[in-house]
Specification:
By secondary structure, this protein is an all-alpha fold. It has eight helices and no strands. It has a domain at about 50-140. The protein has helices at about 5-15, 15-30, 35-45, 50-65, 65-75, 80-100, 105-120, 125-135.
């Protein structure tokens, strides 16, 4: 394939309506602008840095444990359904966070946020790959 043909194919891919969604989501998915504010709120509630570290550890443990099961869920029930569940978990986590300052509520928030992260991670790339496979573009993936 010549460079000119390759340029035309990439131009066609970039002009597809779904590509802006992939790019938009890919850029914003890991930007967590809320984290500094939550940290300030927690500190204002007299939650120690050690306790905040425990909350982050709980979140990461739940993300790790549910990473594979959430991927299996996406494969059987669909990636859009998985993203919907992800955002439900995120929403519930913020409800728990702002029901604080009870530490138990913050723990439940960390659990739900970890589950949301598990359901979110990998879904974006899987949806891109599914689209590329459907459009017979897998030879152009990098």
């Amino acid at each position: 394939m010549s460079k000119e043909e390759e340029k035309e194919i990439f131009k066609w891919i970039n002009n597809q309506g779904i590509m802006w969604k992939f790019k938009f989501y890919g850029f914003f998915k890991n930007l967590k602008f809320f984290e500094p504010y939550i940290l300030i709120i927690f500190l204002g509630w007299n939650i120690s840095l050690f306790q905040i570290g425990i909350l982050i550890a709980i979140q990461e443990v739940f993300t790790f444990i549910f990473e594979v099961p959430s991927g299996m869920f996406a494969d059987t029930r669909g990636k859009k359904t998985e993203l919907r569940i992800c955002f439900i978990f995120y929403s519930i986590s913020f409800i728990f966070y702002f029901l604080g300052p009870a530490y138990e509520m913050l723990i439940l928030g960390a659990v739900c946020f970890g589950l949301g992260e598990a359901f979110r991670s990998g879904t974006h790339k899987a949806m891109e790959m599914q689209w590329m496979d459907k459009e017979d573009l897998m030879q152009y993936k990098s």
